[in-house]
Amino acid sequence: MIRLLRKLTRDFWAWYERHYTLNVSIAVALFALQVVHLCWLTGEPLWTKLFEEPLFTLDGPAQWLIVLVDYTEIPALISVSLVYLHDLRSGFRWRPVMFLVLLNSQWLHLFWITDEFVAQTDNGSGTSLPAWLAYVAILIDYLELPVMFDTIRKLISAMRRGEIGVLLRKRAPSAPGEREEAV
Question: Is this structure's pTM higher than 0.85?
Answer without folding.
Answer: no
